[in-house]
Amino acid sequence: MAYTYEYPRAALTVDCVVFGSRGTSPATHLLLVQRAKPPFEGAWALPGGFLELDETLEQAALRELREETGLVLAHAEQLGAFDAIDRDPRERVLSVAHVAFADMDAQAVEAADDARAVRWFPLDALPALAFDHAAVLEAALPKLKEARR
After folding, report:
1. Beta bridge mates, 31
2. What is the torsion angle, in degrees rounded to the nearest 10, for the CA atoms of residue 66, residue 85, residue 77 and residue 36?
3. How many CB atoms lie within 10 A of CB 121?
């Protein structure tokens, strides 16, 4: 079914903040992908992408995570919406971020789809992040602190 509107519409994406741990230790790492395409080609970013019309936001987040990193998770908690007007130079894009936790040793990660590389970074040694992903991460840090209790 085609959709046609008289007025422009914003695009909708999802982003995944995945904190990684080893065994029963607290989470100390963040999963990032290196972008293979513009914008921000070569920059590190949270895994994510555009919502498809036949999926929920959580389904989209888990699909994008799987497609870009190979990581398969059963659940991601919705964190919130990010709507800065200039957050994506391609067009008006809103993103709904999700938070998840993963055992870094339970599954191997491998870059695929539009990711050039994927890597677990220590939280105290993160690279500069594409888009507004530094703000998304900052919003997710309270979830990490809750999980450490």
Report:
1. 120
2. 20
3. 15
* Domain range summary for the chain, segments of one domain joined by +: 11-148
User: For the residues 25-48, what does the mean pLDDT come to?
Assistant: 97
Question: Which two structure tokens, joined as six digits, stand for 89?
Answer: 């130079």
* 28, HSE (Cβ side, Cα atoms, 13 Å): 8
In this prediction, residue 76 carries a pLDDT of 98
Kindly give the residue spans of alpha helices, DSSP state H, lying in the chain. 57-69, 133-148
What would be the CATH architecture of the domain defined by 11-148?
Answer: Alpha-Beta Complex (3.90)
User: What separation, in Å, do the N-terminal and C-terminal C-alpha atoms of the chain show?
Assistant: 48
Q: Does 3 score more than 90 pLDDT?
A: no
pLDDT at 1: 56
Residue 129 has what DSSP assignment? B
Identify the three-state secondary structure at position 65. helix
CA 113 to chain centre: 14
Average pLDDT across the chain, whole number = 96
CA 94 centroid distance within chain: 13
Is residue 146 classed exposed, middle or buried when 0-12, 13-18 and 19+ CB atoms within 10 A define those classes? Answer: exposed
**Collapsed DSSP state (helix, strand, coil) of residue 20:** strand
